[in-house]
Amino acid sequence: MKKLLSLLIALVAFAIVGCGGGDKKSDGKGEPQVLNLFSWADNIDPAVIEKFEKENNCKVNYDVFANNEELLAKIQAGGAQYDVIQPSDYMVATMLKLGMLEELNLANIPNVKNIVSNLQAPAYDPTGKHSVVYTWGMTGIVYNKKYIKEAPTSWNDLWKDEYKGRIILLNDNREVIGMALKKNGHSNNSLNPQEVEAAVKDLKQLAPNVLAFDTDTIKQKFIAEEAWIGTMWTGDASYTYKDNKDIGFVIPKEGATIWADTFAIPKGAPHKELAEKFIDFMYDPKISAQNYEYIGYNDPNEKANEFHSEEFKNDPMLKIGRENIDKGEWLTDIGEALTMYDRYWTELKTGK
Amino acid sequence: MPKTWRSHVLCAYAMAILAFLYLPLLILALYSFNESRINAVWSGFTLDWYLALFKNRRVLEALTNSLIVAFASTIVSTVLGTTAAIALNKYQYKYKSVINGLLYLPILIPEIVMGLSLLVLFSQAHIPLGKTSLILAHITFCVSFVVITVNARLEGMRPELEQAAMDLYATPFQTFRYVTLPLAMPGIVAGALMAFTLSIDDFIISFFVAGPNSTTLPLYIYAMVKRGISPEINALSTLLMLATIILVIIAQLLQPQHVSKKEE
Questions:
Q1: Residue B40 — pLDDT band, cuts 50, 70, 90?
Q2: Closest to B40 (Cβ–Cβ): which among A61, A77, A224?
């Protein structure tokens, strides 16, 4: 029996070591470099990644997360050795505060200069040295022209009684409360309790008319015409428009939230040089033209314009005038006030 | 008369319960054949989504990751679990019931707690997150299930068989190799299939301990949903579901009670 036991132990040890070793072996085989990318699902044209792999004799491992908090937790726990991550604007601010982002060597990323100038040093990363805008857009009003004859112009239009049961708001406390704050002429990052309370009061009035607070399946609801009017991101509006040509999109006159997902390099990334090469590659005019056509978001790359198809250039959903960008406001880290927003949000959703 | 009335009600009740359990899955599967990109409207039958899946490199990578992790953790946890079950079954020692209980505990501990504790452990021990950490985590929760299934099989076995072998001058190894192991085999295979199924389906624990190059299918599906539910996700989920059902059926057929009945 003892012999048998030691045999089994040896077998188990072998199996464990064998498994552990397998990983490393495939990493070192033939010495192609590895780039560990942590991103949103389906966020980059696969053909573009393949091109990068071929040009640089490397393998891109594309892992996915579903929200910013998940990304933060993974990086915070340490041990996850990603080279390129894609946090959204406010998460860049949080990660900067926590000292989790590597400073980019912009000399290695000359194509950053191709980005529209007013997106180069946004509020959440004022020096522009820790993140690069990737997908960006604004939150506006989406509506169906079949049911809503007169194009909305103001956030106030959502409060019209005839849209009862046909309104969808994003399932996000900062977006929704920020929208009501904008409607009342305040900053969407307001720290003033009175302003926030007034905004929430208005939202509570709107709440009974709301069909759903939804971010994940909002596109389907507009394509199927379950919803007539609501708040939506530009990229999603473009997707929806492709399946339902009655969809219209406006950025209200009071101004709106502007947002972005970015490229950043976490502290201690094992392949920083390749990571910078990758980011630079993504802003090559031709590459970015191909990539943004695939993902259907606004291209921040000014030089790419000449390579874009007419269809993309004329997509009414993606047309954000410069005046709207200037009127737009980023959601910033509001610190302690977030608890107040969270409390109001719970009240709103539970109908208190 | 009242008998048939009663059986009708019972039958309807059973159907209702079955519908409650399986209707959502059926609808999910149905919409994977929907021509339209959106789930809300049915516009015609198509297999395009299944074809698209097999052309999607990310999906194939996630599938490969899932299979590597499932195979590795199944092999290790089956060996560990089987030896543990044999030891538990054969020998009497102090605190046996405590050790027994400790082996079953991982089944009852909330997965989220287990995932979190494994993540903390890995980061404390400086084990980089990736396939290795994922496999180690899966082995941890699979072992208990293997122990339970193998143990159930061993308990149904008569000790006389092993004694008879010993009587006939079989060495302990021969007894194990030619008597115990073959008799326990259905339990071992069922346990291995169980481990494989659990590993392939696991989301919560994987969610915590996955790292670079180790996105598994369930993790991929979850991240895809954020982009809006498309028939492609339905198709992928349907395939995952089918694989699970087949594995569970095989495991059920190999369950000790079936086999022992046949043998008797």
A1: low
A2: A224
Residue A31: CB partners within 8 Å, gap ≥ 6?
A: none
The full DSSP string for A220-254 is HHHHTTS--EEEEEHHHHHHHHHH-TTEEEE--TT
Locate the domains of chain A by residue range.
Answer: 2-135+260-316, 137-258+320-350
Closest by CA to A280, choosing from A161, A154, A111, A150, is: A111
Tell me the per-residue pLDDT of B122-151, one tens digit each, with 9 for 90 and over.
988 888 889 999 999 999 999 999 999 999
Residue type, A153: T
Superfamily name with CATH number, domain A137-258+320-350: Periplasmic binding protein-like II (3.40.190.10)
Q: Which residue out of B178, B227, B229 would a mutagenesis test of the A interface target, given it has the greatest number of A Cβ atoms within 10 Å?
A: B227
Q: Please tell me which residue of chain B has the smallest CA distance to A38.
A: B212
What is the ipTM metric for this complex?
A: 0.76
> Would residue B41 count as lying in a domain?
no
Are A33 and A58 a contacting pair, CB within 8 Å?
A: yes
The answer to whether the CB atoms of B79 and A8 lie below 8 A apart is yes
What is the model's pTM?
Answer: 0.79
CATH number at residue B132: 1.10.3720.10
Structure tokens at B176: 């194990």
